[in-house]
Amino acid sequence: MNWAMRQNKNQDAIQFSRELVEILKNSNQVEKVILPSMGTIHSVAEVTKETNIKVGAQNIAPIEHGEMSGEYSIESLIDIKGEFVEIGHWERRLIFGETEELINKKLLLTLNNNLTPILCVGEKEKTDDLEEVLSEIERQLYNNLYQVKSEELENIVIAYTPYWTVGQTYASNYPHVHEVVKGIRSRLNKYFNSSDIEKLRIIYGGSVSPENTKLIIDNEDIDGVLVGRFGSEPSRYAEIVKIIESNK
Ligand SMILES: O=C[C@H](O)COP(=O)(O)O
């Protein structure tokens, strides 16, 4: 669950996390990760430590430490026992101008520190041309996964997050999601071993809600969802987790 920068006060973040821990205390079949707003990440990690909810950062600097004013270091994330790093979200690519090369550096740094990158990729414009969509995603993956070893794929999560579905009322239609996710695995065959590609986790993000989760995840190639605004209540997020649990 990505909070983006919607919930920024520590007390709110603590209350949200406590409620979530309580609601989901018996949920052990689905991996759950909160990506809090960066200013509250420490507080959330305190609440979720030794629970079944994991914490990650929405971004990290491309180097561990040094001259990088205003950035968040992976060292700080490791210090609070964070396990995931979201990399290449559209907001990072478009607002902050992150290049494919920079995204690749962050991804390699994350893997080298034994944390799990959640790499966001996807097409910008809505189109029915599957070939165009997959070519764009292949271009992103080719650059973002540069120098990644085949056996490292099992430590990576790819979030298929088409830009035109982020912050909207509706998610992408589910047949499109399923075709793209299948296509991603197939395109990666050019670069990686098929047995390693099977271990790669691919999730979908973009206006995911309790109402559309079942249709989105009802496919063998998709491993989960990246929840944004529509999981902004603990009970709604828990609903999504339960739908996934009963579907897998
Ligand atoms: O990281 C999540 C994506 O930004 C999707 O957000 P959204 O579900 O609010 O559209």
Automatic annotation (TrEMBL):
It is found in: Cytoplasm. It comes from Vagococcus carniphilus. One of its GO terms (cellular component) is cytosol. Gene3D superfamilies: Aldolase class I. Belongs to the triosephosphate isomerase family. Transmembrane segments: none annotated. Keywords: Cytoplasm, Gluconeogenesis, Glycolysis, Isomerase. This is Triosephosphate isomerase. Homodimer. Pathway: Carbohydrate biosynthesis; gluconeogenesis; Carbohydrate degradation; glycolysis; D-glyceraldehyde 3-phosphate from glycerone phosphate: step 1/1. It catalyses: D-glyceraldehyde 3-phosphate = dihydroxyacetone phosphate. The keyword Coiled coil does not apply.
